[in-house]
Amino acid sequence: SSEHSLGLPCASHILAVDNAMVARAYTPVSDPHTKGHFDLVVKRYPNGYFSERFHRMEPGDVMDFRGPVTTLQYEPNAARSLGLIAGGTGITPMYQIIRTVLADPEDRTQLRLLYASKSRGDVLLGEELEALAARHPEQLQVRYLLERDGAGGAAAGPAATTGRVSAETIRGFL
Questions:
Q1: What is the 3-state secondary structure (H, E, C) of 62-129?
Q2: Which of 40, 53, 83, 123 could staple 174 via S-S, CB 3.0–4.6 A?
Q3: 12 burial type by CB count under 10 A (0-12 exposed, 13-18 middle, 19+ buried)
Q4: Which residues make Cβ contacts (< 8 Å) with residue 137, sequence separation at least 6?
Q5: pTM of the predicted structure, to 2 decimals
Q6: Which helix H or strand E contains 135, and what residues bound it?
Q7: Residue 38 and residue 108: Cα distance in Å, rounded?
Q8: How far from the centroid of its chain's Cα atoms is residue 163's Cα?
């Protein structure tokens, strides 16, 4: 309802379920205290069981969810720094952690995100990540690792390199 918020703890996700009890995990990317709605990033896959259902939804349609499922108990300042590695749609849990850390002025945790994607056009939440990095340059560094370079997409500039995730890439950035 418009009076309720999702209120998920950081590093939690919810499960979209259908009548056959098929479930898929999704990490909300909206502020957990937003009332009346929550936002998900759902990449559309051809023949994707839930992604096709989400993309066909119209205002007023309903989807059932279960949860929350908490995978990590984040505590502010519990570590001096966090190295985050994400690929594709796996960016949403990292984005949730990044937003939580940066929203707390008392949290001094340093964040380094290595985000791998096939191409610039496949980068999800790139504009949002760039805006956060610009507002918090002393606390957040983002590096995009693209399997193939190409024009377009949100991840642009010197923080994008071509390659694949490897031990060397991780050591060089994190």
A1: CCEEEEEEECCCCCCCCCCEEEEEEEHHHHHHHHHHHHHHHHCCCCCCEEEEEEEECCHHHCCCHHHH
A2: 83
A3: buried
A4: none
A5: 0.88
A6: helix 126-135
A7: 27
A8: 21
pLDDT reported for residue 149: 67
Q: Any residues with CB less than 8 A from the CB of 113 and at least 6 apart, and which?
A: 84, 85, 86, 94, 98, 129, 140, 141, 142, 143
Which token pair is 47?
Answer: 């023949």
User: What pLDDT digit, counting tens, does each position of 126-172 carry?
Assistant: 999 999 999 999 999 999 999 876 555 444 445 788 888 888 888 88
Output the CA angle 11-14-15, nearest 5 degrees: 140
